[in-house]
Design a protein that fits this description.
Elements: H1 3-12, E1 17-22, H2 26-34, E2 41-47, H3 51-60, H4 65-69, E3 72-74, H5 77-81, E4 88-91, H6 96-108, E5 112-115, H7 118-135, E6 139-141, H8 146-159, E7 163-171, H9 185-189, H10 193-198, H11 203-210, H12 213-226, H13 245-248, E8 262-267, E9 284-289, H14 293-301, E10 312-317, H15 327-336, E11 348-354, E12 363-365, E13 372-378, H16 379-385, E14 394-397, H17 420-431
Helix pairs in contact: 1-15, 6-7, 6-17, 7-12, 7-17, 8-12
């Protein structure tokens, strides 16, 4: 990729790549830990609702006091993005409406935007990417997070001339996780509430990882960036080890893959709770097909693991390093003008789905909460039913009952139609026909 070589040139010229970070949580802290060992990359400013907490995060990851003193800390992200010494903005808040607003401001200020905030990307990423392109800036997924790594594998397969059969990630999945709430989540993780509290673990955030919402969000992002599409009823989560990727993930395999060119998440446990051998819980994969008989023969000659036909194989990466790898996106945007994954269409959406029987008058509590989980759906189906995007399901009152397992729709809630994020989402739907 030669990013390090390009960075060395920038460093030698005395023009370091300068970053403005929004949100110094776990992902942001992991990125900050790599800055002191990356000559040519600097953090000009950090915007966080609690600047003192952000300073402490810098100390915790190993920054010395001189580096902290040379960095601006603020609670005003909008003002930070207007600063001329910020070249690349990293949006790491995880709050969809805030992420949309921050991205739009960064684009107006002529900054590249690295969108760690996958929730915002799934809510309106195609339109944000179009705005950035028109402004001459880069809008990009965050390398180190699974969607960008999956996009990289898909790009590798296609650049080599292989047809992509499926792509996605691994996770630990059981059907009962869909009903998990912040009050029940730690039991599923094998932790006590006290252990989680001492570890600084946010129950609602960790619940979104468990209840299927984060998987749906990440696969919608991959679909919108690659042209792959969800199955009609969303994710199936087939149990699958790395040694059987090619065999399980093939079109027509009942219970695993609906069609060629699909996004799918595989489970590290069987439905009876037993462990899958050679699981891919922390990793990502792409399944691909040989385009001709000669390639099939090459697969055999070089020991490639395939399905019984010999035509389908898979490549996987066993883990991802989250914010420790974020530099790749930052440097790709600043030094090459290139995203590490970017939405170019509206193919996948994440619809709020009732965890239990919901009653009129209740207030939805968003991603990872006690009311709804986010189910992956083809974008066209989401639009057909008027599904409420999970990114806009926080602090929204229900105006009628919704049975457990049913999608929550726009008609089921009282939405503020003057809200900027709502209006922008509607503009995205109008601008990008669902594919």
């Amino acid at each position: 990729m030669n990013l390090y070589r390009l960075l060395q040139k920038r460093a030698a010229s005395g023009r370091p790549v300068r970053v403005g970070l929004i949100g110094a949580g776990k992902f942001g802290s992991m990125f900050l830990s790599q800055v002191p060992t990356t000559p040519g990359l600097e953090v000009a400013a950090i915007a966080d609702l609690a600047p003192d907490r952000a300073r402490e995060a810098c100390r915790r990851v190993g920054w010395d006091e001189a580096r902290i003193a040379a960095t601006r800390f603020t609670d005003d992200a909008m003002a930070m993005m207007a600063s001329p010494d910020v070249e690349v903005v990293v949006e790491a808040t995880g709050h969809a409406p805030a992420g949309v607003a921050h991205a739009r401001r960064a684009i107006r200020e002529g900054k590249h935007i690295v969108m760690v905030n996958v929730e915002a990307d799934v809510l309106a990423g195609p339109l944000l990417a179009r705005e950035a392109a028109q402004a001459g800036t880069v809008y990009t997924m965050a390398y180190g997070d699974q969607p960008a790594l999956i996009c990289e594998l898909v790009d590798w397969a296609r650049a080599c001339g292989f047809g992509v059969i499926a792509a996605g990630k691994g996770t630990k999945y059981m059907p009962e996780y869909h009903a998990s709430t912040p009050d029940t989540v730690w039991g599923f993780y094998g932790l006590t509430p006290e252990q989680a509290r001492l570890g600084g673990m946010n129950p609602q955030m960790f619940n979104s990882f468990l209840d299927g919402t984060k998987s749906g969000i990440e696969m919608a992002a991959v679909a919108n960036a690659t042209g792959l599409t969800p199955a009609p009823d969303g994710l199936v989560f087939p149990p699958c080890g790395t040694h059987e990727l090619a065999d399980v993930l093939r079109p027509g395999n009942a219970g695993a893959l609906h069609h060629a060119g699909q996004v799918e998440v595989i489970s590290s446990v069987h439905r009876d709770g037993s462990q899958v051998a050679n699981d891919l819980r922390w990793g990502v994969y792409v399944a691909f097909e040989a385009p001709n008989d000669y390639a099939v023969r090459c697969f055999q000659e070089y020991g490639v693991v395939t399905d019984p036909s010999g035509r389908i194989s898979a490549l996987y990466r066993p883990f991802h390093l989250i914010g420790l790898e974020l530099n790749v996106s930052i440097l790709s945007a600043a030094l090459r003008g290139e995203p590490t994954g970017v939405a170019d269409g509206f193919r996948g959406d994440v619809v709020s789905t009732a965890k239990r029987n919901l009653r009129a008058g209740e207030i939805l509590d968003g991603e990872g909460g006690a009311c709804v989980w986010g189910k992956l759906a083809p974008a066209a189906e989401s639009l057909r039913i008027g599904g409420l995007p999970i990114g806009l399901a926080n602090r929204v009152p229900l105006i009628r009952d919704v049975p457990a397992g049913q999608a929550v729709t726009w008609d089921d809630v009282r939405i503020d139609t003057t809200d900027e994020a709502y209006r922008y989402r509607r503009s995205m739907e109008a601008a990008f026909p669902a594919g």
